[in-house]
Amino acid sequence: MKLVRFVVSGEERPLWGVLEGDSIRVTDGLGGDFTGDRFPLAKVSLKAPAEAPKIVCVGKNYVDPAKPTPADELPKEPGLFLKAANALADPEQSLPYPSFTKELAFEGELAVVIGRTMKKVRESDALDYVLGYSCAIDITAKDCQKTDLQWVRAKSADCFCPLGPWIETDLSPQNVMLRTRINGEVRQESSTAHMIFPVAFILSYISSFMTLLSGDVVLTGTPKGAGPLQRGDVIEVSIEGIGTLKTPVV
């Protein structure tokens, strides 16, 4: 099931619904009852499918099967950082190239949207707390990441976390393909099977010290191939079983 957050032309308040073919069947809020209204997908504007209290991100989390990494060089636990909720951007929303950086970069990632409060949850139970999965782009100002005391500007500027196009609830995250294209050229291609820390472990690990709330978003890391962006580039992140998230850089 694909859960969609959207706005109708002339309206400001986002609605939630379920994508059925080429139309959206409206619900009374996320996970609510059907209202009886329906809108053609082509007639609405998609919004980021989360109203995230916080966005928790994993650093290095993929191995390159073509170049095996010795076990003693792999991270022993997930390396985490945060993005602020203001970084969320809608599907196909333009990303303005910020004036404060000369090294804007992309990372395509599988996003997890939390469905209910998680606190000290075992790995074996962690996926029971997931609402669904989406595509995400972790945008970074690489030069600011190197020079600033903390990563607030480098990671949490406006529009630095495009998310969408919807939440897919029927997905097993253990072995799905992820591809990132820049201007149609494949730059990243890997399977979540190559994650160092699988999704369930990541969620359990985070919940051991930080309560995850309904609506929180967890970005699970990016495979090799992440790189620089230029004005005029178009980023497309496609994840098997979900869809494609598209972001133009202006």
Quickly describe the structure:
This protein is mainly beta and 250 residues long. It contains three helices and 19 strands.
Q: What secondary-structure arrangement, pairings included, does this model have?
A:
Blueprint: E1 2-8, E2 15-20, E3 23-27, E4 34-40, E5 44-46, E6 55-58, E7 80-83, E8 88-89, E9 104-106, E10 108-114, E11 130-137, E12 140-141, H1 142-147, H2 152-156, E13 161-168, E14 177-182, E15 185-191, H3 199-207, E16 217-219, E17 227-228, E18 234-239, E19 243-248
What can you see in these coordinates?
- With 250 residues, this protein is mostly beta strands.
- It folds into 2 domains: 1-47, SH3 type barrels, CATH 2.30.30.370; 50-248, Fumarylacetoacetase-like, C-terminal domain (Fumarylacetoacetate hydrolase, domain 2).
- The protein has 3 helices and 19 strands.
- The protein has helices spanning 142-147, 152-156, 199-207, and strands at 2-8, 15-20, 23-27, 34-40, 44-46, 55-58, 80-83, 88-89, 104-106, 108-114, 130-137, 140-141, 161-168, 177-182, 185-191, 217-219, 227-228, 234-239, 243-248.
- Strands 1, 2, 3, 4, 5, 6, 7, 8, 10, 11, 13 and 16 form a 12-stranded mixed sheet that branches.
- The radius of gyration is 18 Å and the shape is globular.
List keywords for this structure.
SH3 type barrels; 250 residues; 2 domains; four-stranded antiparallel beta sheet; Fumarylacetoacetate hydrolase, domain 2; mainly beta; twelve-stranded mixed beta sheet
